Each structure stands twice: as C-alpha cells, then as structure tokens.
Amino acid sequence: MRKIAFQGQLGAYSHLACTHVSPEAQPVAYDSFVQAIAAVESGKADWAMIPLENSSAGRVEEIYRQIPKTHLNIVAEHFQPVSHCLMALPQAKPTWVMSHPQALAQCHDKIIKLGLESRAEFDTAGAAKLLSQSKDLSGSVVASELAAQLYGLEIIERQFEDITGNTTRFIVLMKNPEMPAYEPDTQYITSILFTLRNIPAALYKALGGFATNGLNLIKIESYLDNATLKSSQFHIDIAQHIESQAMQQAIEELKFYASEYRWLGTFESHPFRVK
Description:
By secondary structure, the chain is α/β, with parallel strands linked by helices. The chain is 28% helix and 34% strand.
C-alpha cells in the first residue's frame, strides 16, 4: 500500500485532505513538516501532503523556507474547506473548549455565546485525542468531523465556525515527478523557483515574458536568501503547462535574468479554482 505523509495527528485537516486526494493510500502522521518531507525523500512514504496557504491565515511561512531545501516536486494541489465541529464525549456537559488557537479564533463568537472557557492546544486533532483519553465530561473540542469519528466523540454542532468559506490550499510533493501529458484543453499550474541576477529592473524584465506570451501569473511569493540576506528568491505559479510553446518562450526570457532557476512541478489545476 502506498503511503502519504502529513504533519499533525490522525484526524487533522491535513489527514482529511489525504483522504480526499488519495483515499486508497495509508496516511502517516509526523510531528513536523520537515519530518513529513524527509519521509518522502528517504522512501518511507510516496507523497507528502503539505499546506501552503490558508484563506484566513495567509501563507505557511515554514513551507516556503523548506521548498528550496528539498528536491521533491509538486505533483498536485488540493483545496480543502475547513469546517469546524464542536464535539465532546457522550453525555458530556461542556464548560470549556480546547483546540488550536487559530481554530478557537475562527469560532470565537459561538464559543462566547455558549459561555465556554477557551483553552489553547497544539493542534485540533491532538486536542480531540487528549479529550478522548481524559474522559473529562466538562470539556469539548473544536476539530474536524474525521477527528470525532477517530476518537469516539459526539458532534454537538457542525459548521461551528463564525464565518464559512475558510479554505486551505495543499500541495502534494513526490520524489519522482509525474508530469501530466500536455492537453491544450486542460487547465494546468506550473510552479517555478528562481533567484534574480543583480541588475536594474531584473524582476520586471524576468516576468515580462509571461505578459508578452499571454500567460497568467496567478501567484508570486518572495523571500530572502537565508544564507546571505542579500538576494531574494521568487516562487511563482503560472496558469499553463511547462511544455506549451508560450511557456517555453517565457521561461527562456526569465532564465536570461535569473542567476538560479528551478522547475518545481506542473500539475492539473484543482476544480476549486473554477469556483
């Protein structure tokens, strides 16, 4: 059976994303993103499910620092809606609730309305596991429906978040890239990492090829080189297949102004983008 690594406890939203992307694979939990990525690099797992950004919390800074250090490739993306549930042990009468601080913040108004005391824990699924083991009938947890199933908790209220629509974008990393064949009628995303040469207007000139070739640049992130703090690396997503003629022409122009260039992956665009 193929394995898919993720950071967190069983029942976490990353675990939930694994079940959607590859329901036949065995999810394997790791304590950190670094460990999950290393599991794929060493061959202990086939893929890593890694959160890249969240619609309410922004980008996951740690992942952007790890991507340049790994030789894995992006083979897919997945958009996972984050719908919290309030849960407790059977016959419980909660007076307090625990979860990850971000989950508690996203449910703040409803927690106040119920008069529950908030207690912060490391993650949502870990809080559910802790409550299950404690047998405390005065406690409750904000976590995923999957966590309730795994840890024998009863759901008190679904869609417990104050504002709906919170979504996390995940990327799936793999050691040996499986790039889809280019089909002109299919929508693709190509991810690229590059560092610019130290010349005036280098970024403007490097990205100009995408504009002149009619390509849509849908994401750009920049961060300083940790070694020198003198140069910036750029992570960009373009809505096109790497093998299209327009992309090849644009990349040729980008490479002229880049001191370093790396293709991170080409994969089919997730249906969520159409919505």
